[in-house]
Structures are given as structure tokens and as C-alpha cells.
Amino acid sequence: MCEPTTALLIASAGSSFLQYQQAKEAQKAQFVAQKRQNEIARANAIRRYATEQLKIRQTIAKSSEKGFQANIRSKVARAKFIAGSEGLALSGSQERLMGDYYRVQGNYNASLQRNLGINVSQFERNLEAIQFGQEAQSTYLQPPNPALLFASSALNVANTYYSLEFQKENAGLMTNKQKNAQTNSVSGVWT
After folding, report:
1. Rounded CA gap, 108 and 127, in Å?
2. pLDDT tens across 33-75, in order?
């Protein structure tokens, strides 16, 4: 028949083994979940990058089209003005009016360029925010560590054994070490 200490030690070892298996599977599942979270964060960032890039391309195309249309309108207005005064030399007021056309067109083009620069700067800040968002959504990958789990379980079993031995000693019972010493001293007498 088995001694109670041995039975408790066997039960503790079995329990530690089951806990080891469960913890190992939990670590694997957590690692898979961490990898999946990082994949989701990366895919989300890629989608947001694509959206921002489409927006800035559309903004650039829109600005370019506005500039082109303004240039055509300005040329048409100047052509009509010049056609209306065919064969006549331009007077001072007419020259100032032409200069005013060029000034308005230049101011409009400068305004388009300034707005485009602002939009591009905002685009760059949005890309930085997307990158920061991806980093915030990503998790630190912690791969499973079965060796550490095994060592922890083994130490748990050893702790249980020495705890039982200590309880025996406090109760005034013989510990396994004392029993072995007594058995060894008696066995030398009979041989």
C-alpha cells in the first residue's frame, strides 16, 4: 500500500502535468491571437494608406483641373480684349487692365498651389497618424515558453513534497529522510 505522502505527491505531479498542458495550450492560443491582432492592424493600416493616397491624388487632380480651367478662362478674356482693340495701340489704362488679368490669374494659381501644399502636408500627417495607429493596435508577440512552464510545474511538485515533509516534522511524525536513515541503520545490523 502506498504511503499518504507518496499518494499526495503523485496527485500533485498529475495535477501539475495537467496544469502544464493547459498553460502550454493557453500560451499557444495567446500567441496565435497576438499574431492575428497584428495582421488585422497591418491590413487596417494598408486600407487606410490606400484611402489617403486616393484622396490626395483626387485633390491634386482637382487642383490641376481648376488651374487649367482658370488659365483657359484668362486666355479667352485676354483674347477678347485684344480682339476688341485690333489695330489700336494699347493705352495705359488698357495695359493696366491686362496687368490686372495677369495679377488675378497669378494670385489664383498661387492660391491653388498654397492650398495644395496644405493638403499635401495634411496628407503626410494623416500617414503618420495611420502608422501610429497601427503601432497602437499591434501587440507584443510573446511566443510560448514550454521550458519555463515545465520548470514551474516541477518546482510546484517539489514545493508540495517539501511542504508535506515540513508538516510531518511539525506534527512530530517521521519524515521520509528520517525513515530512510533509520532503515539504512537497521539494514546494516542484519547483514
Report:
1. 29
2. 999 999 999 999 999 999 999 999 999 999 999 988 988 888 8
pTM of the model: 0.58
Alpha-carbon gap, residue 175 to 13, rounded angstroms:
19
Domain count, the chain: 1
Q: For cell 494598408, name the residue.
A: 46
**pLDDT tens by residue, 134-154:** 888 888 888 888 888 888 888
Report if residue 115 sits inside a domain.
Answer: yes
Give the range of the structural domain holding residue 20, as residue numbers without chain letter: 11-153
